[in-house]
Amino acid sequence: MKTVLYSDDINLLSHWQKSLENLCDVYDDLDSLYEIKESIIIINFSACLPECSYVLAELNKNNNRVLILHRTPDFEVAKKMIHLGAFGYGNALMRDHFIVSAVNTIRDGMVWLYPEYTSQLIMEIRPKEENQDALLVSLTSREKEVALLLKDGLTYKDIAIKLDITPRTVKAHAQNTYAKLHVKDRVALALLLK
After folding, report:
1. Fold for the domain defined by 3-113
2. Domain HTH luxR-type: where (predicted)?
3. So where are the chain's domains?
4. Which of 104, 132, 152, 159 sits a CA distance of 20 to 30 A from 123?
């Protein structure tokens, strides 16, 4: 999948190109985006106003995956964009590694949100009545600890501090947990366990 950038802000385009090491195409006309097929399209929020729902619908018709980046990100806007079919939402000025992570996650067919928004979304999930112990029986005791903390919306860094281990170790336990429970990510784990 190729990556395409569109923005009404030349500074954002420059930042995104640098983050992606210029391995992307840049478009300067919104109507020309509607002809693109099977690509990851990064677009800033203000460039798709006033009708983001129309823009997303048109871009999604051609099996594109859209990442909306916003100069002033907002959790409620994030939920709305994901609901409308965006594959990701984040800060337009986020660090390079977040942009690369977002593109890679979306390329893999998953939804990407800024980590703080993922935690907020997890905390909004209503608890299930099912017995968590039965679901977690295949996990080691440490994986179970990590899974329960992830379910509560803690970040890898927060869990690392709480358990006195490195964030990298938390990530390894999380990945093992996802594989054993047949889920793709933190949100899917939270949905399973809440």
Report:
1. Rossmann fold (3.40.50)
2. 132-194
3. 3-113, 121-193
4. 104
